[in-house]
Amino acid sequence: MSTQTLLLPPLSRLSGVSALPRLLGRGDREPAQVPGLLAALAEVFAVPGSGLPVAALLREAQTHDAGENVWLCADPAWVQAELAGARLLACGALGLARDEAEELARPLRPLLGDSGMLLEISTPDRWQLRLPVGSPLPSFAAPETVLGQHL
């Protein structure tokens, strides 16, 4: 018997998927070992070493051109300035239209390009930076773990 693993968003977002009740009825629900998309992906893919190449996986899934490039997630975020610093209020799911995303990216591209980075927009909510070959990947906390916190 074959096994399939489904990583699903909240079921309320899947009401239009007609085959889903049949698939879910034939399976077993496994509790998440750790919360969050990135942790779930790392768990399913069991990537050893330095961690899951999330940006490259997302880029490949969305545009099929990740190749051997070094990618960094650069999703648009809502950061609110406060007296004591800044707070991350949202990341990725801002509901931007394609033209709005391009407008936001336009002034960033030359600044990043001066450092050899290329800002790419896969979807209005999913952006990536293509880093120069050989660039080390910095370590960041997953946005979902720092939402609402001071940066």
TrEMBL record:
Protein name: Regulatory protein
Naturally occurring in which organism (per UniProt): mine drainage metagenome
